[in-house]
Amino acid sequence: MMGYENQGHEEAHLYATPAEMESLVLTDNDDSSHHQSQPNHHHPLSSSLPFAAQIPTDDDHLLASPSFLTHSQSQSQNPIPNHSSSSSSFKFILEPPSYADAVFRSFDGDHINETNGHDSSSGDLSSSPPSTVEYLSISVSDPQKEQDLANSLVSGGNTYVTYLITTRTNLPDFNGSEFSVRRRFKDVVTLSDRLSESYRGFFIPIRPDKNVVESQVMQKQEFVEQRRVALEKYLRRLAAHPVIRRSDELRSFLEVDGRLPLVRNTDVASRMLDGAVKLPRQLFGESVGGAVDVSEVVQPAKGGRDLLRLFKELKQSVTNDWGGAKPPVVEEDKEFLEKKEKLQDFEQQISNVSQQAESLVKAQQDIGETMGQLGLAFVKLTKFETEEAVYETQRVRAADMKSVATAAVKASRLYRELTAQTVKHLDKLHEYLGAMLAVNQAFSDRSSALLTVQTLLSELSSLHLRIEKLEAASSKIFGGDRARIRKIDELKETVRATEDAKSCAIREYERIKENNKNELERLDKERHDDFFNMLKGFVVNQAGYAEKMASVWDMVAEETIGYAKDGS
Amino acid sequence: MQQRSFSGVSQSPRSPSKQPPYLAVSVTDPAKMGNGVQAYISYKVITKTNLPEYQGLEKIVIRRYSDFVWLRDRLFEKYKGIFIPPLPEKSTVGTNKALSCAEKFRFTAEFIEMRRQALDIFVNRIASHHELQQSEDLRIFLQADEQTMERARSQETGIFKKKPADLMQIFKDVQSRVSDVVLGKEKPVEESNPDYEKLKRYVFELEDHLAEAQKHAYRLVKRHRELGQSLSDFGRAVKLLGACEGEALGKAFSELGTKSEMLSVKLQKEAQHLLMNFEEPLKDYVRAVHSVKGTIAERAAAFRQHCDLAETIKLKEIDLNKLRLTRSERTVDAEHEYEELKADGEEARRRFEMIVRLMNEEMVRFQEEKTLDVGLAFHEFAKGQSRLANAIADAWRSLLPKLEACSSS
């Protein structure tokens, strides 16, 4: 019928698997009559289908291969497949694999998953099949309004929304395999904060925004639903992280009924007061209290009680940037610096691709819409001509128009589905953009830990300097200088405490560096897998829907071929 | 363009050759002439014929758009009742709004080709119409040298050309229904023919439907272009990402980007094909319906003239009888006038009836022609969409083995 049909075959054979190459002969179109499906030339019975069956996607349901795929899979082992027709024992049409049906199966599969929060997928970001031993599956559902009785100063009280967090798991850390708790958004914020403190250097998924403005402006129901979806995504990401999923914080959040046992940050005011007492302890190690609380050193300086520490670290960072001398310890790891730069480049490119992907999706959507409108216009015209027909030619025209209208409407529907699927695939890009936030956070954990080390080292060196000076001054006085000697002793105490703090800080820094390194490796691997799956999914999707559309239009072209001029 | 098959060409007894008579015309080679404000496009009109009325087997003349307008105006005047083939619009203003600068530039080359195609179809329709092909004006158009043509063209302005205002008035009269009666204005004279009423309603409603379909067809062309553009941008962005990724994944992204860019080109091509072979025929259909409306207006004018004269004749008869009774000297003159009026009335009635007869025949021809034209347009549309979809499917499918190869590394 059309010249390109043969061209398609020629092209197709270039992409055959090696097994088929040996007995490759291109037939003419006779053989297509042996296949029972549609009159188009893309047949699922192709023996070159192995990749279609093997393509892993995020969606488990796709792995239930339709029967024709498994049939051809077994065929592909044998380079000379058994076709039903006798004449084709050595020849077979090397059809390019048809993804049309695979695509539609996946579409149906996804439909089942669309229902509100009752998804049994593992939430794994990687593409490993669900038959792995460990799983941790979380869903968020059933938003309910509740009263905040404790803090209600005003009658009527403070209402807030809680969500039902349902967990299904076989991990040994948990007490049980299926359980639920109710949590509110504040609890999620707490969880997120605790995790950032405990897992510095890790790429911790970023929690959903508080969206204060939106919560006032949007319709309550819409906002709650939006939040529910975001929470579910967030918790699933946490569950997918190999280290975080085993964390105590997450476990408590998921299984401890009633109030969340994670301690919230004390408010700033009380910390300021604390600071007044603890300030000396922090870095000077006065006789009161003695050793510095090590865990405080480990945390980055926050506001309030760490005011003095903040000042010192700020001074240090300024020295780092503007001072003439190099800071005592620098980020030397060349590999890390290279990786960091690459990641920054990556982030930019991802952002760019993500933007273009959005435009692409919109353009696809638009063309589908316009196609639909065109179809409808023709439907109306068909109806009109049919009703008003006086001549037979009008009825013929109306019939032609009807098939075009039907095809256009079908094509429009296909575009709509294609767009929905494309969005899902390309969503991976958005996810990675989000992941970059986590990466940046982890890198900044590293820098702030380094800054702490640098500050302590500077502190130490200035302390030593002071001791030297005092000793020098003191030695000049015959019999010793009581006051100065006492001061020297105090300073030496401080030095010891500071040394402890320094060792601690260095250990922490090294720990964070190690975390960064492991996480970068994990990111690389996951990114590799995720993006390949994304690409495959995208390509299969596009190919499948294009095939469907081609067959729709092929039919119309066939029907109207009588109008074609010779040699068209 | 193509040779239309001939039916109904009167075989001249002097035709020497045994070959069946043919008249094949094509409009080609648009060329820009002149500079600045005076610039215009000229076309080569090539006539191949063995009809004796024409000089020689082949003739090439140079014509411009206003020459085509001249031809159409002449035919419209002389062949009332026949749906004269429509011309493409005079200017681009008002036809395609909301074009970007880049589009406007492209539109120029596009526009010229579209116009050439439309003019070619126009002349061919005339040449294959059993009545119109015999027109003297057509012969002049196809054969006269440029100076003669120019003279003829400049002569006609003012004499035959109906002012647009008059035509609008006729349209309004035809369309007015109850409103005038309700307002107590003089009821316009209209035929009371239910079939004809139905036909008129059909024509007016058809135009609305067609205009809507054509609007969406044009939008669809734009959407193809937009999709092509975003695929191209997407491809480029993906390639950049591939460059920063490197290794297998980078290669995969590069391949994807390249395919996207390739498909973008295909989409632009398809947009062009869609414009020329689907949207343009729909626009042509709308123009043809306008032409029918023009004939409807002519018929209404002829009917009114016929009625007016009949009215006048009746009055004159009454007058004449009065005069005859009174044996006035003016009787003889009155008799002459009466006879003249009767002749005019007869003429008007004949003209009107011819228009009616021709219109009936034309309606049949029109419906046939449109079914063929639209059928072809549908075929081209479906073919184009199928071709595009297949190209897209092939391109993405071909990528998969490469992706597989890359991912396993």
Task: Give a quick precis of the structure.
Chain A: Its main location: cytoplasm. The complex is a heterodimer of chains A (568) and B (409). Chain A has 568 residues and is mainly α.
The CATH architecture of the largest domain in chain B can be named as Up-down Bundle
Poorly predicted parts of chain B? 1-12, 102-106, 177-182
CATH class of the largest domain in chain B: Mainly Alpha
What fraction, in percent, of the residue positions of chain B are helical?
Answer: over 70%
Number of strands of chain B: 3
**Strand order, sheet with most strands of chain B:** 1-2-3
Between the first and last Cα atoms of chain B, what is the distance in angstroms?
Answer: 56 Å
CATH 2nd-level architecture of the domain at 136-255 in chain A: 2-Layer Sandwich
Largest interface (C-beta under 8 Å) = A-B, 77 and 70 residues
Please tell me how large the radius of gyration of chain B is: 29 Å
Number of helices of chain B: 9
Structure overview:
The complex is a heterodimer of chains A (568) and B (409). Chain A is mainly alpha-helical. Chain A has a domain of 120 residues: PX Domain (2-Layer Sandwich). Helices cover 62% and strands 6% of the residues of chain A. Chain A has a 3-stranded antiparallel beta sheet. In chain A, strand 2 and strand 3 form a beta hairpin. The N terminus of chain A is likely disordered. Chain B is mainly alpha-helical. Chain B folds into 2 domains: 147 residues, PX Domain (2-Layer Sandwich); 191 residues, Arfaptin homology (AH) domain/BAR domain (Substrate Binding Domain Of Dnak, Chain:A, Domain 2, Up-down Bundle), CATH 1.20.1270. Chain B is 71% helix and 7% strand. Chain B is built from 9 helices and 3 strands. In chain B, a hairpin with a 6-residue loop joins strand 1 and strand 2. In chain B, helix 8 runs antiparallel to helix 9. Chain B starts with 22 loop residues before the first strand and ends with a helix. Chains A and B meet through helix 1, helix 13, helix 14 and helix 15 of A and helix 7, helix 8 and helix 9 of B. Chain A: One of its GO terms (biological process) is protein transport. Chain A: GO terms for molecular function: phosphatidylinositol binding. Chain A: Keywords: Coiled coil, Cytoplasm, Endosome, Golgi apparatus, Membrane, Phosphoprotein, Protein transport, Transport. Chain A: One of its GO terms (cellular component) is retromer complex. Chain A: Pfam families: PX, Vps5.
